[in-house]
Amino acid sequence: MSDETPGASPEQTEQPRRGRGPRRGGGGGGDRGRRQREPQAQEERAEGELVDKLVAINRVAKVVKGGKNFGFAALVVVGDKKGRVGFGHGKAREVPEAIRKATEEAKKTLVRVPLREGRTLHHDGHGRWGAGKVMLRAAPAGTGLIAGGPMRAVLEVLGVSDVVAKSKGSSNPYNMVRATFDALKSQSSPRQIANRRGLKVADLVGRRKDGASLGEVPAEG
To answer: Which helix (H) or strand (E) element contains residue 68?
Structure first.
C-alpha cells in the first residue's frame, strides 16, 4: 500500500519543477530588466566626459559612549583631461558611499587651469599647504608625466602629459593634493597676461622668442 500512495509518483513530483522553470527564464522579465537598465547606461555616457581617480581611503573611528563607530574617509580627484580639475573629500559608513560623496564634492569644485599646447604648463610653479610643498616645472614634448603619488593623479585627470613634479614636504595625500592645486591656481597664460597689461598676445610671444634668441647668441659665440 505504501508503494501506491498518491504524491509519490514521478509525474506529480515533476509538475512543480516544470512550473518553476518558465518563471525564471521568462522573456517578459528579461525585457523589463533591459528596459530598466537602459536609462542608467545613458546616465553613465552623459557623465563619461569626467574622469575620477581615488587618491586615498582611510578607516576612521568615532569614539562614543558605547564604544567606537567605524567609517571610511575617501579623497577623490576629478577632471576632464582638458584643463579642468577638482578634488573632494567624503566620509561614510561604507566605502562606496564615501567615494560617491567625495566624487560629488569634487565635481562642484572644478577649476580651470590654462595649458600650453594642451600638454604642459605655461611656466614653473610652486605650491604649499600646511607642511606640503610641491614644485611643478613645464617640460618639452616627449618628457612624459614625471610625478608620483597624489600629484600624478591630479595631473593625469587634468590632462597634462609633459611635466616634471617634485614633492619637497609632507607626504600626507591631503596636503599634497591641496599644495598641487595651490601651484596650479597660480598658472597664467599669455592671453591673461596680455589682458592684464593691455598688450597683444603676439607682442608677448614675440618678446619671448626674441629673448630666447638673444640668450642663445652668447652661448654660441
So the answer is: strand 67-79
Does the 125-190 domain belong in CATH 1.10.565.10? no
Q: Is 196 helix (H, G, I), strand (E, B) or coil?
A: helix
Handedness of CA 18, 19, 24, 30 (dihedral sign): positive
Which spans in 26-133 are helix H? Answer: 27-46, 95-108
pLDDT digits (tens, 9 = 90+) for 118-134: 888 888 899 999 899 99
Which run of H or E residues covers position 163? strand 163-167
Tell me the three state secondary structure of residue 84. strand
Rounded Cα gap, residues 149 and 166, in angstroms: 10
Query: Each residue of 82-106: pLDDT tens digit?
Result: 889 999 999 999 999 999 999 999 9
**Strands 145-146 and 125-129, bridge-based pairing:** unpaired
Residues of the chain with CATH 3.30.230.10: 125-190
78 vs 214, higher pLDDT: 78
Which DSSP symbol is given to 92? E
Q: Which long-range contacts (CB under 8 A, 24 or more apart) does 13-21 make?
A: none
Architecture of domain 51-112: 2-Layer Sandwich (3.30)
